[in-house]
Model the fold of this input.
Amino acid sequence: MTVATFWQEFITAKNLDPSAQYYSSFFFCSNEELANKLLALVLSGKKTATTSSFLSYEPEGERLPQAGDYSIVTDFEGNPHCVIETTAVTILRFNEMTYDICKREGEDDTLESWREGHRKFFKQDADELGYEFSEDMPVVFQDFKVVFRRHN
Done:
């Protein structure tokens, strides 16, 4: 199923304005194993948040996510699995992250493991997009809820 078809199913099921647009369609992380693992965490209800670099929005002039935005989460191959709705957006410095916040991502058992994994991700992201990772760089923490799932 294409993302466009999936979005139309969502629009119809939720009786939304047919002209409604989604904020983004994406998979988590940058490799197949993690992308599909994180998708499974979302579908299970364990992952209800994600973090991105504030600086990653600048190169493309992309706006930051906002509460009420809908996004389509796909597997690594781009197959849509669910629609999420952003419920809150918090901007803070990487080194200001607390475990009470990051545990909503459902990926880590400690703040240090979150920092370790996200340092690696943000350094790779920075290399690809042309910004520089630093411990005090701003990050965008996005809470969300699943509002629609693919019917198999």
In short: The radius of gyration is 15 Å.
